[in-house]
Amino acid sequence: AQIKLVSGDAGKAIQYNILKREVDTNRQIYDSMLQRVKESSIASALRASNIRVVDPANPPRLPYKPVMSLNAALGALAGLILGVVFVVMLDRADRTLQQPGDSTYFLDVPELGVIPSATAVYRKAFYNIGKSDSVTSVNSVVDRVELITFQRKPSVVAEAFRTVLTSLLFTGNGNRPRALVLTSASPGEGKTTVVTNLAIALAEIKQLTIVVDADLRKPRIHDIFGLNNDRGLSDILQLRPLPADALNGLIQETQIPGLFALTAGPPTSAAANLLYGKNLEAIIAILKKQFEMVIIDTPPMLQMPDARVVAKAADAVVLVARAHKTTRDAAVAARQRFAEDGTKLLGTILNDWDPKSAPNGYYGYYSNYHYSAYTKSYGSPEAKQ
Q: Which of 137, 198, 242, 295 is the most exposed place for a label (fewest CB within 10 A)?
């Protein structure tokens, strides 16, 4: 009986344990399901999103773009390259004679001198001495630039003409030309201004000088010196034959001591025909006997043949070029024409050059020299106040 009782209790214990484990398992499943239900209810109340924070962001020390140092280096390099290209293209586009020495380089002829721009030099001088009405003053000073060597003797421009004269006097190893033709390649390059000022500079050193106006189409010498032009070169060129006293009464004395002029006479369209005659050589020969220096003003030589014809009857020719106006091609063409004619080309004169375009030393010298010369002649403005 006891054995049966113990066996029954053991079976019930086993059955109890089985049921307990099943209850524990069901409780765990219930708790898990309950937790998921709560989580689902909470998740349903939130907005759905596919974004998940992996790591918190940190602010960078430097911006990602742009890289200032790299961009600055690239910009400087690009600017340097573009600047070089621009300068090269600008230099190639501007084919004019610009600086002293250009004519020697491109034409392979001596440069006898450089004439600074009267307007630029005087404007700088008036700026230095504090003139308030500098523009009006400059215009009043340079309105007769053809006579600046006589009217403004201490000026830089006048000294430049005297420097050119020195170069002319020292050419030919003592056998300098006595009948000199001045011309230019194109109009408006200042050859008449150079002619009159060189003649004045010659008269200053006691050289008996005559200016001959061989521009029979647009004569100007009579207007510059205030002379009568009723009769002149064009009249005696028409005489057949040339009388021995043909020049009597035609050579006029100017206001500059030692300087005379033979005006062109009434303008004529047959200038070239008159110059081709034998009278021209005879006239120049007579003038060389009466004067120590004969300066002949002629028209531009590329458009008209007058200068080439007169140059054949004279001793030599000088080509006047204007800075930033005379092109290299025109100057080379003019030199080639004279070479083909067998005419002696002494050299070139660079006219109307702005010293401001030169290095600072050059410009400073011009402005300081002119300021000193101006105050010596007209007094310091500070002293007048």
A: 137
